[in-house]
C-alpha cells in the first residue's frame, strides 16, 4: 500500500502518526526505506529504535523489546533481596563490570541489575 506513495499521502501519514503513541512507543520520525515505511520510536524505557511502522499500527510491536524482556523476567527467578548488597558492591568495586555481565551471571536482565544498583 505504501509503494509509489505520493508526497501528499506521505504528508498525511506523517501528520497522522508523528508523535503518536502506540503501546510504549512514541513515533518521532517516519521515513521510507525501499518503500517500506519505517518509524523511529522512543520507548517508555528510553530506548530509541527503528521499527517497521506497519508492525506498530497493527499492534505487533509494542515496545523496543523491553516489554518482551519484562515478560521473560516474570518467569525467571528474581534475585533475593539478600543478594542486593553483594551486587552493588560487585558493580562498584569493579568498574569494568557492566550491568549486562552481572545480569548474565544471575540470569536476569540488565534492567534488573540497574534498578538494584540505583536503588530503585
Ligand atoms: Zn523499551
Q: In words, what does this structure look like?
A:
- By secondary structure, the protein is of the alpha+beta class.
- The chain folds into 2 domains: 7-64, no CATH class; 76-118, no CATH class.
- Helix content is 44%, strand content 20%.
- It contains 6 helices and 4 strands; from the N terminus they run H-E-E-E-E-H-H-H-H-H.
- The protein has helices at 7-17, 53-57, 66-75, 84-93, 99-106, 110-118, and strands spanning 21-22, 25-33, 36-43, 48-52.
- Strands 1-2-3-4 form a 4-stranded antiparallel beta sheet.
- Helix 5 crosses helix 6 (110-118).
- The chain starts with 6 loop residues before the first helix and ends with a helix.
- The model has no long low-confidence stretch (mean pLDDT 85).
- The structure holds zinc ion (ZN).
- The site of zinc ion has 8 residues, from loops.
Describe the secondary structure blueprint for this structure.
Layout: H1 7-17, E1 21-22, E2 25-33, E3 36-43, E4 48-52, H2 53-57, H3 66-75, H4 84-93, H5 99-106, H6 110-118
Antiparallel strand pairs: 1-2, 2-3, 3-4
Helix pairs in contact: 5-6
This protein binds zinc ion (ZN).
Zinc ion binds next to loops.
Question: In a nutshell, what does this entry contain?
Answer:
The chain has 120 residues and is of the alpha+beta class.
**Main beta-sheet strand count, sense and barrel state:** 4 strands, antiparallel
The oligomeric state of the chains shown is: single chain
Mean pLDDT: 85
Helical segment tally? Answer: 6
Globally, the shape reads: elongated
H/E series: HEEEEHHHHH
Strand content: 15-25%
Overall tally of domains: 2
Amino acid at each position: 500500500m505504501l509503494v509509489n506513495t505520493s508526497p501528499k499521502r506521505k504528508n498525511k501519514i506523517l501528520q497522522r502518526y508523528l508523535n503518536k503513541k502506540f503501546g510504549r512507543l512514541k513515533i518521532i520520525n517516519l521515513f521510507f526505506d525501499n518503500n517500506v515505511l519505517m518509524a523511529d520510536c522512543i520507548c517508555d524505557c528510553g530506548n530509541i529504535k527503528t521499527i517497521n511502522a506497519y508492525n506498530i499500527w497493527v499492534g505487533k510491536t509494542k515496545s523496543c523489546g523491553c516489554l518482551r524482556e519484562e515478560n521473560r523476567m516474570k518467569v525467571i527467578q528474581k534475585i533475593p533481596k539478600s543478594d542486593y548488597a553483594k551486587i552493588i558492591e560487585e558493580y562498584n568495586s569493579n568498574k569494568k563490570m557492566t550491568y549486562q555481565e552481572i545480569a548474565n551471571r544471575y540470569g536476569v536482565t540488565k534492567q534488573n541489575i540497574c534498578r538494584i544498583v540505583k536503588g530503585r
